[in-house]
Design a protein that fits this description.
Structural class: alpha+beta
CATH topology of the largest domain: Glutathione S-transferase Yfyf (Class Pi), Chain A, domain 2
Low-confidence stretches: none
């Protein structure tokens, strides 16, 4: 299995894809393709119909299997590795985890657009817009809801085990660190847990080696 990622510094979806493999011990090869470059356009051509990262290419059959979009990758890996723990075992918790991932996948547009992922930067003067602040509060609400109902005192949203839901919210935690968003109580502990996970640390370490710069992800503030 080859996982195709964008710039690790900037690509929140690539971090999600990475975290659907690493914490679960699923072996893969990786290819990093810098976003919005000729190489990225070549990737789109070579892996049609995929148009985005992460994309998973599974070889070994008559023709390679191309799976794009983080949710699709999560479900494929769950089918291939049902005992890995990608989704919670409890049906109610599993349904909740999928709902959280789906909302993260399609929502929070203000947070995404005004707080682009940038693992290199730490802003001290950033102030979220009213809409972004509402998105942040919604994130806190979902985290508390999941942990109160299924956390069982564990460090993750659904208890002791890291799941796909944690993978989907890890880039939000990274954004909070970049933009100086400091939650209170359980959300703060959860952010620390996500950012200190060995797989997240490994992704960040790789990002430090990148040289590409995307100007629209670089805010002109301190």
């Amino acid at each position: 299995m080859q996982l195709i990622l964008g710039n690790k510094v900037y690509s929140s979806w690539s971090l999600r894809g990475w975290l659907l493999f690493k914490p679960f011990g699923i072996a893969f090869d990786q290819q990093v393709v810098p976003l919005y470059t000729d190489d990225f356009e070549a990737f789109r051509t070579n892996t049609f119909p995929a148009r985005q990262v992460p994309t998973l290419v599974v070889s070994g059959g008559e023709t390679p299997l191309v799976i794009w979009d983080s949710l699709s990758i999560a479900e494929f890996l769950h089918e291939q590795h049902p005992d890995a723990g990608i989704w919670p075992k409890d049906p109610a918790a599993r349904a909740a985890a999928r709902s959280l991932c789906a909302e993260m996948h399609s929502g929070f547009q203000a947070l995404r657009s005004t707080m682009p992922m940038n693992l290199r930067r730490r802003y001290s003067t950033f102030q979220p817009s009213e809409d972004a602040a509402a998105d942040i509060e919604r994130v806190y609400t979902l985290w508390r809801w999941a942990r109160d109902n299924w956390g069982d005192g564990g460090p993750y949203l659904f208890g002791e085990q890291f799941t796909a839901a944690d993978a989907f919210f890890a880039p939000v935690a990274a954004r909070f660190r970049t933009y100086g968003v400091v939650p209170d109580g359980k959300p703060a502990a959860y952010v620390d847990t996500l950012l200190s996970h060995p797989s997240t640390v490994a992704f960040n370490r790789d990002s430090e080696k990148e040289v590409w710069v995307m100007d629209h992800n670089e805010l002109e503030i301190d």
